[in-house]
Amino acid sequence: MYHDRRIGQSRTAVVVRYCNTKRFLALMCVIVLAATTLLSACAPVDGVLRRLGIAKGAGVDSGDVLSESNFVRVITSCLLMDDSEAIKAAYETIPSVQLDNMSLSTFTNYVQMLSGLTEGRGLLSSFKIISSEEAIPVQDAMVESIPNQEDLIRLSIPVELVFSDQSQTDPVFIYFQRAEDGMPYLSKSWVDQCLILFQYADHYFQAVNSQNINAIYSMISNSYLDASYSLSDKSIILKAREISRYYLSRVKSEPSEYRVVALNISRVEFNQPSVLTNDLEDYESRRVGFFMNSVGTVSVDEHIINTLSTRDYYLYDDYSRTIGIGDIATSGHFNSLFGSPKLTTIGRLLDASESGDSESIRRIIVEYAEVSFVIVGKVLSDDNWEGTIYQIRISEQSEDFSLGNSIYVGMSRDEFMKLYPFADETDFYIENITDSQRYMLHADFSQDESDTLDSVTLELVD
Question: Where is 238: in which H helix or E strand?
Answer without folding.
Answer: helix 233-249
